[in-house]
Amino acid sequence: MSVEVVTGNHAAGYALSLAGEANRSARGMACGIYPITPQTEIVEYVAKFPFSKGRVVPVESEHSAMAVSMGASISGARAFTASSANGLAYMAENVMVAGYYRLPIVMVAVNRTLGPPWNIWADQGDTLMLRDFAWLQFYCETNQEVLDTTLLAFRLAEDRRILLPVLVCMDAFIVSHTQTETALPEQADVDRFLPDLDLPHRLQADEARTLGGLAWPHEGLSMRLEIDEAMKRVPQVYGECRTAFEETFGRDPGGAVQNFETEDAEVILVASGTMATTAREVVKKRRAAGEKIGLTKLKMYRPFPADELRAACESASRVAVLDRNYAAGAGGIFWQDTLAAFQGRRDDLLIQNYLTGLCGGDVTPMVIDEILADLGARSEAGEPVWMGIDAGEET
Length: 395
Fold this sequence. Notes:
By secondary structure, the protein is an alpha/beta fold. The protein has helices at residues 8-21, 40-48, 62-74, 85-100, 125-128, 143-158, 187-193, 217-249, 275-288, 306-312, 333-342, 365-376; strands at residues 2-7, 29-33, 54-58, 78-83, 106-111, 136-139, 166-171, 179-184, 257-260, 267-271, 293-298, 300-302, 318-323, 350-355, 385-386. A 7-stranded mixed β-sheet has the order 3-2-4-5-7-6-12. A 6-stranded mixed β-sheet has the order 9-11-10-13-14-15, with helices on both faces. Strands 1-8 form a two-stranded antiparallel sheet. Helix 11 (333-342) links the parallel strand 13 (318-323) and strand 14 (350-355). Helix 1 packs parallel to helix 2 (40-48), helix 3 (62-74) packs parallel to helix 4 (85-100) and helix 10 (306-312) crosses helix 11 (333-342). It is globular and about 70 Å long.
């Protein structure tokens, strides 16, 4: 294993490539690729990798990129792709289909603001528009977390108790194009971590099958229930994959929920992605000043880790949910799920939503301080608060 200074895109491309190569003694790999800023470097890396078995297929659109990955996956290959923003929107139909086909595809998504108006900076709205599809979703804070989570995603997706596709997400430019020291594993270690894919429902050349045919209502309902049961198994299987990862690579890829100074916290910030880095530094300074404040980073968003979030906020009386996303007319998306997690369980907990960093805006320590000032002055929760409208000031 070597430590190199690489971008988040390089880390993602490296992980996808080694994971694909690890399936060379089985059905190999396949990747449908189409460029879009700021993820293009990922598929460029994959396209140049000397795979022993499989194909990287340049296509004419994101919709086709997922179609290639689906066709390869249902044939038993280890399949993956990458996309962003309006590319994901164009791909959406096949993203939905991949989940319902129970295909263990891994897609790296670089979170970019949906247009119009056109904007290439970070916003989680693109992947969160897919939140009700049968995909697992993880939001990464660092380049190392991108690499580790991508590798772990294959083992998790391909586990027969799960068999669902996975989205690994990172903030545009803040992670994708920023270079940091990243531990890059050797192919032999990835081979040990990722067993050969043996998809139980893959198509066989000597067996006639119909894929995606008409199903009666009770059959469709049964399939949805099976997906729900698989989602409920994710936390346990993720924990097992995390242990196996640490045993193989010698480092912890991190939990689905990561807490910092929450044991006795009266105020907790809930954040995801790179906002957690800034929030953690603010927590450190305020802890040093004697304030009982903590941070809960939600790495896993689907399935939503409600039990872990409730446990993290057990001592708190106030929670600020920071959303780099917005559902029109309904506020932040992480906030909506947080409210649902506490519904009927904590009448004494004030949960306030703050929309910050949308459309690529900077989330600075000053913004976090303003959020905490607003939260501390409240006697009750109110409508979502928009931050950063005018140089970090709220409306």
